[in-house]
Structure formats: structure tokens, C-alpha cells
Amino acid sequence: MIFSKVETAGHATNGSQRPPADHEVSLRHKKWQRGLVRLAIVASALFILGACDQSNPPATDGRLVETHLTFNGGPRTADAVVHPTTVRLTVLNEAGALIGFDANWVQRAAGEHTAIVVPASERSTRLYLNEGQKLTFIARAYGEDGKLLAYGSSERVTTAGSSMSTAIELQALLGTVSLTPRLPTNYVVAGQVLDLVLSVTPPGRDDLIAPPTHFRAAYSIGNGTARATTERGVRLMVGDRSNGDLMVDAIATGFVADAAVVEVGEVSAHTLVLPFPTEIVTDAEPPTISDLAFDDHQLIFTGVAADNIGLTLVELYDGPVRLATTDREFISAEVPEIYFPGGGTAFQTHLNRLPDGPTFTVVATDHAGHESTLDLSLHPR
After folding, report:
1. Which terminus of the chain, N or C, has fewer Cβ atoms within 10 Å?
2. Strands 64-73 and 164-172
3. Which long-range contacts (CB under 8 A, 24 or more apart) does 96-101 make?
4. Domain 288-377, CATH among 3.40.50.300, 3.50.50.100, 2.60.40.10, 3.40.50.1260
5. Which CATH number fits domain 64-172: 3.40.228.10, 3.30.300.30, 2.60.40.2100, 3.60.10.10?
6. Span 170-192, mean pLDDT?
7. How confident is the model over 290-341, as pLDDT tens digits?
8. Class of CATH domain 176-274
């Protein structure tokens, strides 16, 4: 009998070789079973790792575009620092319907999540969106008290085969608008050049500021002429006494909220009225300065300055060295501005360094040219 050559389980047999015994077949079968078990364990591990890895979620409703969104801007504090807000993000399709997401922020036809909440400690999030869509991203920013403070939106088209980054600028909502003289002013005189500061705050948050880039401003002046206007305020020249009091109105145009609806609207300031003195008199009273204080840890200098008619200049000196001023010509990185928050008589400034000398000197000047000074001695540290 002639046997042909056959490959079986990695072994060759021919006429001179005997077939494997039963115990050899049984041993090979057990090794084969152990190999299958190892393969099953490896496959299970890979499956678990894949389920835990959300960096590349499965695309069940179409090819996905990884989308990174960042949120910039919003209202600021008095120190010009962006106030932290919690953002509530929604996404609309071209028909204006809300997009749904699963728990991993993957777009789903029946996704139960239609709003993504981004905590104040974070300023970005990541979504996975179907390709080829024209979408509108809408962000509403809330303060720690739950008040709506800012709004922003962006339109984008998800492009196949790429990731996408979108920055949404949060514009502060307009709440209260006010005009105040940059320096304490009780009365005006004909021909006087006067600076008025425009301040806009979000609804119910007078401690915050809407940045000037978040709105447009317009002014109406009675018995005066505008010399320069910006979203920060107006510089004007006072008219003749016979034309009556100086009256100035301001309107800010930007985002306003009506219940849950945010739209572009206008907010007006209360009319600022500055009268002339009741009689034409010679100003014989110099300015007053009081309540000087200095925080040598935060480098904040504060005080009170006033005049019966109005101030034109307040400066802070270290001997002959000008440390801070209200004069726009000299304000710089080295010489910070002295400002009167809220238009009152209390002033403050944040210095860049400690003075070299042992004494601060405050100098205040009024419209008639009267000058007053007051010193504050520093205590040795």
C-alpha cells in the first residue's frame, strides 16, 4: 500500500511514519483549547479598553467631526479681570431644532441631552458632531447667583475628515447705564472742557462692568458741544450760561435679555444735569482733601477730594516724582490713573511700586486754579 504525503496539524506523514497515537492527539487538542482561551481573554480586554476610550467614540449616526469649543470674554470686575461664569451651551441645526447628545457628547438622533453645562472652572468643551451640517452654537453665561450675564453665538459647518475648533465670544448683557464726571463736579462754567465717563453694568450686577467693546454708545448733549466720543465716555465743551443747564443723555446698544430671550436692544442712562452756579460769583474756595490711606501690601492709595464748584486735577507725588494722576497726558504704565469710582468724591489708584521717600503728597486743583495739598507719612515696614 502506498501512502501519499499529507500535512496535518503541522506534522508530515508518509509510508514510513506511523499515525499519531490517541494520547498524542488528546495532548494537541488540549493545547489548541488553551490557545483559544488566551485569544478570548485578549479579545475581551481589547473590547473593555475600547469601551473605556472616549477619545474616538463610535459613529452610529454618521461620520463624526471632533469639535473643540472655547468661551472667551464676558463681564469684568472693577480690576478689569474677566468674571468667571458657568456656560450653558446648546446647538441648533439649520432648521433651528436642538441637537441631541449622549452622555459622551456624541450627536445622536435620539440623544437625551440638549444642553451642555461647562463649569466656571473650565472655559472649553468637546463635542462629536455629524459631518456636513450647518450648525449654530449658542452660549449663555451665568454668574454664581444664577443670573444671566453674557451671551454669544457662532455658526459653523462641520467638514468631513477633519476636527474643528470654534471660539465663542461672550458679550456682557446690558443692564444699567450711567454717566458721571471723571472728576468731582457740582457746577459747570461756560467754556469748560469736561470729561464724562460712561459705565455699563450687567443686569442686577453693579459690581461688574460690560467692556466697551461689547456695546455701541451714542450721546445727546444740551448746551454743550462734543469734542470726542467713544464707548468709554464723552469729552465736551460747556455752552453759554444763558442757554441753561448742561444736559447729557447716553444710549448703549448691545445684547439685552427679556425673560429667556436675548436680542439686540438699547438701554438709556438717566439724563445727567449739571447746573451753572445760581449767581455769577468768583470761586474763592480751594479744594478739600481728606481720609488719605495706603495699603503697602496691595499698593493701593485711597482718599477723598472735593471742591465747591469742581476739580480739574488730582495728582499723587513722592517728593518731586509724579506717582499717579488724573491728567490723561501723563497717565502711562509708570504713572497709573487716579479715578473716582461711581462719580463720587472718593478716589483710588493702584501704584506700581513703593515710593522711595517717606511721605506721599496729594495735590488737588479746581477750575479757578486754587490748589490744595495734603501729606501722608509712611510707617517703616
Report:
1. N
2. parallel
3. 99/129, 99/135, 101/127
4. 2.60.40.10
5. 2.60.40.2100
6. 95
7. 999 999 999 999 999 999 999 999 999 999 999 999 999 999 999 999 999 8
8. mainly beta
Q: Do the strands 359-366 and 346-350 form a parallel or antiparallel pair, or are they unpaired?
A: unpaired
Look at the block and give the residue holding cell 451671551.
151
Domain boundaries, the chain: 20-53, 64-172, 176-274, 288-377
CA-based torsion, 331, 335, 336, 338: positive or negative: negative
Q: How far is the C-alpha of 49 from the C-alpha of 128, rounded, in Å?
A: 20
Residue carrying the nine cell digits 470726542: 228
Residue 42 in this model has a pLDDT that exceeds 50: no
State how far the Cα of 176 lies from the Cα of 199, in Å rounded to an integer: 8
C-alpha cell at 296: 503697602
- Which amino acid is located at 150 in the chain? A
